[in-house]
Write a structure and sequence with these properties.
With 68 residues, the protein is mainly α. The chain has helices at 2-7, 10-14, 33-42, 51-61; strands spanning 20-22, 46-48. It starts with a helix and ends in a 7-residue tail after the last helix.
Length: 68
């Protein structure tokens, strides 16, 4: 659940690190995917639509454009 993850991100925020995530699941899951995404976004996390997009965003955040 996102609320547990958000609590552990405090050290990253203090270090001024970009936090990028993707959420796997559906709104039919007990945790409701859309609710988990909202919790993360409210905590300042960039939520990508897929693991692949999260990887690309992470690479760009450190000045790379793609994996070679």
């Amino acid at each position: 659940p996102a609320s547990q993850s958000v609590a552990s991100l405090e050290n990253c925020r203090r270090a001024d690190v970009d936090i990028i995530a993707s959420v796997t699941g559906t709104d039919e899951d007990p945790q409701q995917r859309s609710r988990q995404v909202e919790i993360l976004r409210q905590a300042g996390v960039v939520v990508a639509s897929s693991n692949a997009q999260a990887t690309q965003l992470a690479l760009r955040s450190v000045g790379l454009h793609s994996v070679t």
